[in-house]
Amino acid sequence: MKLTRQVSSGPRELPPAPAHFTNRTAELALLEKLLSQDGTGGPAVHLISGQGGIGKTALATAWARHLGDRFPAGHLWADLGGFSTNGPLSASEALGRFLRALGVPPEGLPADVEELTALYRTTTAERPLLVLLDNAGSTEQVLPLLPTGGESLVIVTSRRRLGRLQTEHRARLVELAPFGSTHSAELLGRAVGEERVGAEAAHARAIAELCGGLPIALTTVSAKLAGRPKMSLEKIATELGKEYRRLATLSTKEAQSVEASFNLSYDELPSDAAALYAALGLHPGPDFGVGVAAASIAVREEVAEDLLDQLVDVGLLIDRGDDRYTFHDLARLHAKEKTAGNEYDRDIAMRRMLEWYLFAASKTTVMTVPDQDPIPYRYEYRPPTPVSFESPEEELAWLERERENLIAAVETAETWQLPELGWQLAAAMWPLFLLRKHYPDFLKVSQAGVRCARAWGNASAEALMHNRSGAACRGSGRYDEAVVHYEAGREAARKAGDEVVEIRSVEGLGLVALAQGRLEDAVKWFTEDHRLSESRNRTHDIGLALINLGSTQLKAGRPDPAIEHLTRAREVLAADPYNVARARTDLGRALTAAGDLAAARTELEASLATMEASGSRFEVARALSAFGEIAEAEGNTGEARRFYDRALPILVGLGRPEADALRTRLEQL
């Protein structure tokens, strides 16, 4: 495989190189040699295999960083969690992460994993990427994530040999063996000082032997020594030997070595640091911040920061930077075992973490107009530190950063039979899904919300989650499934006597009919929506129903009633700039159809300005398309083409079906 050194302009997701990366000179040379021989026509695939804790990730990361500048389209990385106690990373989540990193907006991601895979293949076809897939549990985890570009390189690490990856995709295998005594001593020397190791060479060799040559065990012991400059290596070797012999019942020497090294650090932790370590072993997501760590043992954040630093210092926790922390999967298992047999402590720690996520996510709901009256939640363990955000942008950024943890929290609450909490968590993610779509996640969370609400026995909550499931299906073009959810939502809302939630079900049925071109059905549903909204004196819902009625009448070729509905909607929604702008866009189109081009331009200028300020790319595209319609009506096809050319890439990037119609219109021009 011929590579040229270039400056990367794409995503750069590789984790930091390990601080004390040692030896592996022969393996690095072999990897380089194999890479130079690649010429299969597809992406080069290299598999680094070996037992847990042997240093696969360290080698893969060090090599990937060495190669980084040769891949101009950037670097992608994912921990596939193939052997994690939290379970493997799903293909849809991994694909979604990669596509977003490559510039596909969340709104443009399909919900179906096959469609995600196809989009990934298309997106990577012309990009020379470096892809690091760490901790793969199976070939099936890897296959959807292989880019199609022939100049790409994929580095996979796994405890298994993944035979199919070798036979079907010509993966080049490099197997790692434990360190010998010389390289074990070298790692110790880099961490604690060559002079200190040299002064107690015999004890250094004993430590290396007791650690089984496993870098993870050596690193943990080194961290303990580095934090205690006056502690002798003899003392560590003696303590490690006792612990090793105590664990003689474990199945392998490697397991004894890892467990012994972890216990050596854990047993000397202060009680509060030990409690935090054990609690975080139960954390449902892949990484975590200070806030949820503090909540897990009910301490202030400044206390938790100090305890987290202690865990990092002794090698039991990994600091990823930006106040984010994670475990090696062997350390997570070790931490989790510290609460085994104590169901009371486990339940408290888990509930504290789940309730912290709900507490924080609930602070973001002010970003959007609620689609139902809130259902209050009584906290068992209210977090000790308040959560606040300085701006809507900060709230949305927090939701994006914690998205995987929030989804894991919903699923964990359901698994731990906490249905009320699971439903509340699912409901609190609404602002993220409304504004950023994330349709695969939106559907997964909403369907979990349906199950939790049903188990909780709250029909209003169940109706709301059916409606949100319907919205996720509708947004991704799964119209038949959307109808099933909206009808189930309406039935549950009626059972609960909740007309407010029923309004959302009826509106959803109208939106599906409109998307499918069943215009008279859409008018029927939106008229019913308007009636229900007026009967409950729901001003905002009245305005939304009027927008939908106006849009449908316009699509049916009836501009006069459309103008009437949309003008009224603009007045009713005066306190909601975003939806006023939505009404103005369709009003501008209706006025264009009626021949009042000057008035249409006035409405669209105001609409476009609002939508550009709000960052709503889809609504910007709609306004630009409407300007193109004015230009067409004036006979200025050149100007119309310019507006359509600006709108089309936005719609394509969002994966919107409107892109096909606009493309056809451009061809006709």
From TrEMBL:
Domain Orc1-like AAA ATPase span(s) in chain numbering: 21-119
Protein name (Swiss-Prot/TrEMBL): Tetratricopeptide (TPR) repeat protein
Coiled coil: none
Ranges for region Disordered: 1-20
PANTHER family in the record: HTH-TYPE TRANSCRIPTIONAL REGULATOR RV0890C-RELATED (PTHR47691:SF3), REGULATOR-RELATED (PTHR47691)
InterPro entries per the UniProt record, alphabetical: AAA_16, Apaf_helical, P-loop_NTPase, TPR-like_helical_dom_sf, TPR_rpt
SUPFAM superfamilies: P-loop containing nucleoside triphosphate hydrolases, TPR-like
A Pfam family reported for this protein in Swiss-Prot or TrEMBL: AAA_16
Lineage per the UniProt record: Bacteria, Bacillati, Actinomycetota, Actinomycetes, Pseudonocardiales
